[in-house]
Fold each of these.
Amino acid sequence: MFIKKFSVQNYKNFKKKYTLDFSDVKDYPYGKQCISNGMIKNAIIYGKNAAGKTNFGLAMLDITCHLVDKNAIPESFVNYSNADSSDPVVSFSYVFVNDSDEYRYDYKKTGAQRLVSEELYCNGRVVFTFDYMKQQGDFSHLEEYHLNTLNWKFRKTGASLLRYMANNSSLDDDNPVSAIMGYVSGMLWFRSLGKGNDYMGFMLTIEDMIDYIIRNDYVEDFQAFLKEYGVDEAITVKQSADGSYVLYFKHKNLIPFISAASNGTQALLTFYYWYKHLKDITFLFIDEFDAFYHYELAEKIVKLLEEKYSIQVVLTSHNTGLLSNRIMRPDCYFLLLKDHLTSLANATDRELRMGYNLEKLLRNGEFDG
């Protein structure tokens, strides 16, 4: 299952409608590792400071706030509606592709947990619609999707109908309701700006990353990972006086990992932690993924995500050194501008050939259009 298209309007700094269209694939003969099933699989979003790169990622993960019980960050809840708009209603639209089926799920809110409306369509046909203000909707097609036996008497007022259907029905995995719920349960947004592990979606409880590595006997694997990505340090575990286990850099005198690790190594720790969960993740958004990475390390991480994993991955970055047809392709690089989101392929009339220097074109204003 893939996201085909995502749109948001009136959320935080996005007064106008912003759309990321994963199906807008061009006919480039290179960079095919970034495309899967006719969809963009790997994307990098660029934008100036305060353009809204973080907000766009939070918008994409907003769906996890009302459909599933997963972790959220306070930043996603505050200043929810656009401050320059007189309309408090925020609109979201997701189009999913599941084999030969296409699902469109639209909803509107006035806050992270305050639904205004919900609509679900399967292959262009209504599954249900509901207006929470008027407390009415279209449920005439529920029987077609085996949703007609629900007991509405005990539904919590204001709670998502899609969630209620999923939690109170026995549905096949290919039912649009269960398919969407399963996919959303595996969506993840995270960032690593030095120490800490800010994330949204995927899990409900925050877990200590070092404890996770020690508990699962991943110390040697983590050391090999660090070495592969440029940190050639031996690490070891020792039990402290209180019985807990602590990770150390292994020198003549042991140095506690968590206090001595550089910001770049801390960022690698966060990436490694989520990297070990990738088999269960359905969609991944990493904000400022390379904020503390050397340019060679950033490129290696991009290639790892391109070549070894089939899920859709969206990264944000300021590193224009990654703008290369050798790494990705023009329809996979996006610019977040003041009134829309566009791929490099759509930001110019020039035919962007393999040999073109995309970074130089960007710096020279080719995509300012």
Amino acid sequence: MMNYPRSPKRTLGGLAHLPRLFDKIRLRHTGQIQDYNYLTVGFDKYLLDLLQIKPEELEQHVLQGRTDEELLAWVQIHARPITEEEARQWNERVLYGGPKDEAARRRFQDRLREVAAKRGVSVGSLPSVTAWSDIIELDEERM
């Protein structure tokens, strides 16, 4: 069975995806996941941009074996202050954000086809989803 990082829908310190980012760093460096991009694309990059934390610095602290709570405390000290409204907008983007243009819609459909092929089913038999985080949930067998 594949060892997946936590859902992007999980929150820590009021921010969706943060626990997943920690997991992706941990799993990648123990060789348990290879095909995950992190730190430079997608939600990972957008979260690091929001926090204004250097990816290498976060990675270094995660790899020191710190707990989620210790890492959260480090993030809260080193990140720029995030307002409640920024956190709300971020969480909404992670939880409900879908493709915004035609190119993104094509990527979304391509990802659905990949998930369906991996499961050996038709795209039509997958649960209906509209958010990028739902595709992750499908791909990692939480849906």
Amino acid sequence: MHCTIEDLVALRDGEGSVWARRHVEECAECQAERERLYQRVAQLKALPALRPPRDRWSAIRDTVQAGRSRRRQRWVRGGLAVAAAIVGIIIIGPINPTPALGENLAQAKQQSAQLETTLRDYDSDSRVMSGREADLTAQLEDQIAVLDGQLARLGDSARADAQLVDLWRQRVDLMQQLLQVHVTRAKYVGL
């Protein structure tokens, strides 16, 4: 058994064991390894000491300040772009009027019809539901039924007032939530 590198380092530092000292005196291989260790240490000590030059501080400071200046300029340009966009919206906004209530009503009715078709095609009756999902589905369907009653009372008048548009949008939101319950449940059932 030969000395380990730790044994040889301990011998170099004068802390080696009696066994390691005797073994190195008798073993040519361990003597050669100790000699290589001494040579490495001597080579490392012969390396020049690297110290940064004292006159580099101004270059480092200039680099840091230039980086800060670039970041500041980016923020200023970004802020100006946002301000220009806001001004553009304020100025151009009144030129392009918002769609009429009739268009909003037609859009909400179309979305509602699409969601209703999607829900009908989904065939949720053939799938197994947990109690929580069934309760959530029932609550959403009840809320949709209440909205349908309110819509029936208002009638499909030729005039489209804001309340009618709001009710149709609420119906679309509830139907999207209902579809999300079915889709989420379907994802987890397959796992």
Amino acid sequence: MLGYPGAGKTTAAKLIAKQKNALHIWADEHRRTHYPEPHYSEEENQKLYLKLNSQAEMALKSDQSVVYDTAFNHYADRKKLRSIAKEAGADTIIIWVQTPLDISKHRALNADLHTETRILGSMTGQNFGRLSDKLEEPKESENTITLDGTKLSTQYIDKKLA
């Protein structure tokens, strides 16, 4: 998943996982479960993603499709996951949820609008800027499907993934 905070990545991930009968690995849900007061420190992130990457690897090696729901906005992170998938004999697809910056920011800063997906609460404007400014667009070599984050629905996802 790739996109700004509040773009609709989790909404898209849930729809895709349901449609494809895939394991939905949702980083925010795991963070909330294991870190009731998350700090987003380097150590916390490393522990969290080591566990999630292992879970993804095990599922892929068992021929289970995986929707890995976190912001893979950095090329290096996507490259690492591609190597995990390749080792498991699986292909990767980048799902880039594109939503206008102002709409994404409004969603991210107002958790009460999206209580099912913004389970860690509202984001600060500073954190939104820090994360959205560092988004690295997919390279031509990356297998990418682009979704409009303002049109997410079961029918729309079915059409885009067909």
